[in-house]
Amino acid sequence: MEPPENVTVGFASAEKIILRWDSMVSEEARERMIFDGERQEIDRYLQAVDDIQRLLASATMADDHNQANSAIQIAMARLEDEFRNILIAHTKDEDFAKDNAMTREAELQTGENSTSSSYRSTHSIRELDLIPCEVIDDLRSIAERMISAGYFRECVQVYGSVRKSAVDGTFRRLGIENLSIGDIQKLEREALERKIRRWTQAAKVCVRTVFASEKRLSEQIFKGLGAATDDACFMETVKGPAIQLFNFVEAVSNSRRSPEKLFKILDLHDALSDLLPDVEVVFQSKSSESIRVQAAEILSRLAEAARGILSEFENAVLREPSEIPGSRRDNSPLD
């Protein structure tokens, strides 16, 4: 057992390092980030956090426990800021559409066994390395200490907030909109057709590259740090965007039916049917089951909508050709 005086000296030394980087009291701490500095400084701080956590676990006196707990709270607040800063600094605007096209072309030229690509290929799924490996090591070292100290929720929230902003930016660049059934109803035929064409292309990039790459990143940082921690961070990032992506198709499937929509509904059905196996791979965990279910249910609604339009069209033909809905050739809003 370590002598009490050594424990006291060890704690005092670690606490001094922690307090030096307390942005509430230190001007230097407010102006500089630890992980922007020298490696030795980074390692010294992480070691101090480890020492405090170890002393906290072994503290027997109430005063010692309170002092160590106070130091841990200061350290966790600092690590949270460092975690956020690193994520923001290394989050860039990825041209996913371009990367996806380049990967397909590269595969045709070199085959999927090429080791020169920065992608991991799983059939049609393409996973980009969103953050450099050495930076991932730093993020993982912070996440490990935050989670072990009981700051799992704070870590997930910071991660999800930064990465979701990146995904939202990608959605805007791909032209993915959050449209309701009412918005769909107001669109003229050509406008709706343009949006459907855009969605069918963008959805491939979102599922096969954007979401898949985010899943890879969360695994790189969080896998093995706790039960389903990586999946929690992944879903914190992409659940909202995934729902938004499929809401467009759901709105189309639930809007009023008319013959003009038939072929576009079939296009959406084919596109989603083609994507469904990839959705099941990317969202294979228990916590992401709702996304898989939503996609499958929308596919069924699209099929039902197509059958309904065909049935109504056949009935109209049998009744009277002049009563066929949509026979007029105008560009008015869809019925």
Please tell me about this protein's structure.
The chain contains 12 helices and 2 strands, in the order H-H-H-H-H-E-E-H-H-H-H-H-H-H. It has 335 residues and is an all-alpha fold. The longest helix has 34 residues. Strand 1 and strand 2 form a beta hairpin. A two-stranded antiparallel ribbon has the order 1-2. It folds into 2 domains: 89 residues; 244 residues, Monooxygenase (Up-down Bundle), CATH 1.20.1280.170. It is elongated, with a radius of gyration of 27 Å. 72% of the residues lie in helices and 2% in strands.
In short:
InterPro entries: Cullin_repeat-like_dom_sf, Exo70, Exo70_C. 72% of the residues lie in helices and 2% in strands.
pLDDT below 50 for ≥5 consecutive residues: which ranges?
Answer: 102-122
Count of helix runs: 12
Number of strands: 2
What is the H-and-E element order? HHHHHEEHHHHHHH
Distance between the termini: 80 Å
CATH domain class of the largest domain = Mainly Alpha
Query: Which whole number gives the mean pLDDT?
Result: 84
Count of spatially separate domains: 2
From the 3D structure, determine the CATH topology of the largest domain. Answer: Monooxygenase
Structural class, judged by helices and strands? mainly alpha
CATH architecture heading of the largest domain? Up-down Bundle
DSSP helix fraction: over 70%
Secondary-structure topology with pairs:
Blueprint: H1 4-20, H2 27-31, H3 39-58, H4 62-89, H5 96-110, E1 120-122, E2 125-127, H6 133-148, H7 152-174, H8 181-186, H9 189-222, H10 229-254, H11 262-282, H12 289-319
Antiparallel strand pairs: 1-2
Helix pairs in contact: 1-3, 1-4, 3-4, 4-6, 4-7, 6-7, 6-9, 7-9, 7-10, 9-10, 9-11, 10-12, 11-12
